[in-house]
Design goal:
Elongation Factor Tu (Ef-tu), domain 3, 16 strands, 19% helix, five-stranded antiparallel sheet, 31% strand, 339 residues, 2 domains, alpha+beta, Gyrase A, domain 2, six-stranded antiparallel sheet
């Protein structure tokens, strides 16, 4: 079974998640993190908050997950290609009373799927079932199980030292075999493959991904991410064009011009990827704001047809799974994949 199908049907484990971890501590840590992000900092102790880090022109430098542990903030920084976050974070912390510590001693393991919670409960204990979305479960020795995901399924990230992570992963694999959702020879997905699967899952579910093609040159407004931007921090001008999701002809490749009515230029294709689960090609396009809604048929100059669409495209199995009622051995009645 492919990693994409494991993610959507049972349990998917992946190592070497994209991004880096840093901890900001000290008297001014809150102020520095608040200055860093585009939206307001509202995270409580033991909770996590997604956030955007923008450049001066309003383009995303990184997608962040912020974990608050008392007066410390651990940042999971998923940076755009070519951007190195450490020097910029150090420059922000240096003039203040905050201290930045790279967390290179920790590795990150992804635990995703409709029955990720059941395997995680077998390893980390029954408290896992009660961990709400965007909350963290503190493990021994300063390690964390963070409930966060852009896959649309139950999802957790394990932030742990390599020896601990290896022990936990072995326990998760054994639990999956006992639950009957993994074969003995099923492996953990490597970093390179994991990044592609996570990026594709974000596309299927309508989540922003800093690695999707073409997005690094666009502003948060063009990316329709203003719900993650505080107007008190950023003055934003209404853009002429907006990003939309598209379906249709796979030959409408990134960079292809898009026409309406066969002749009027209204945008271009940014990103395409084939969903192994749906068996179709999805994508992103930048189009005139006047047509940035679902159901608009567009063509390339070569005649390839696409249609603007509204995600999510996947009917996530996790939406039908209730931990109080269901188990991997007692799955609910699944409907079709396509929403």
């Amino acid at each position: 079974m492919t990693p994409d199908h494991l993610l959507r049907t049972s349990l998917w484990l992946c190592e070497g998640l994209p991004g880096q971890l840093f901890t900001m501590a000290g008297d001014d840590a809150w102020d520095v993190v608040d200055q860093l992000i585009a939206g307001p900092l509202r995270v409580r102790d033991g909770r996590v908050q997604p956030a955007l880090w923008l450049d001066p022109d309003g383009r995303p430098l990184a997608d962040l997950v912020i974990l608050r542990d008392r007066d410390e903030f651990t940042l999971s920084v998923d940076a755009r290609l070519g951007f190195e976050p450490a020097p910029a974070l150090l420059a922000m912390a240096a003039p203040s009373g905050a201290r930045l510590r790279p967390r290179d001693e920790l590795v990150r393991v992804g635990i995703h799927g409709p029955f990720a919670w059941e395997a995680a409960t077998a390893v980390f204990g029954p408290a896992v079932v009660g961990v709400p979305f965007q909350t963290a479960l503190e493990l021994p020795d300063g390690e964390w199980l963070v409930r966060t995901s852009t896959t649309g399924e139950f999802g957790y990230e394990l932030w742990a030292r390599p020896a601990s992570a290896a022990r936990y992963v072995l326990g998760l694999r054994d639990a999956a075999v006992v639950l009957g959702i993994w074969d003995r020879d099923q492996g953990v997905t490597s970093a390179k493959v994991a990044s592609a699967v996570l990026d594709r899952a974000a596309l299927e579910n309508g989540h922003f991904c800093v690695r999707h093609g073409g997005v690094s040159d666009l502003t948060a407004a063009e990316l329709q991410l203003l719900h993650r931007v505080d107007p008190a921090k950023r003055t934003v001008r209404a853009p002429d064009r907006l990003v939309v999701w598209i379906t249709g002809d796979a030959d409408a490749t990134p960079g292809s011009e898009l026409l309406i009515g066969g002749s009027e230029r209204v945008g271009r294709v940014l990103h395409r990827d084939r969903s192994p689960v749906l068996g179709e090609v999805l994508g992103l396009a930048l189009v005139d704001a006047s047509i940035a809604w679902p159901g608009v048929v567009l063509t390339t100059p070569e005649g390839h047809r696409v249609e603007t669409a509204s995600p999510p495209f996947i009917d996530n199995r996790s939406l039908s799974v209730e931990p109080q009622r269901h188990r991997a051995a007692n799955t609910p009645e699944w409907g079709p994949w396509r929403r």
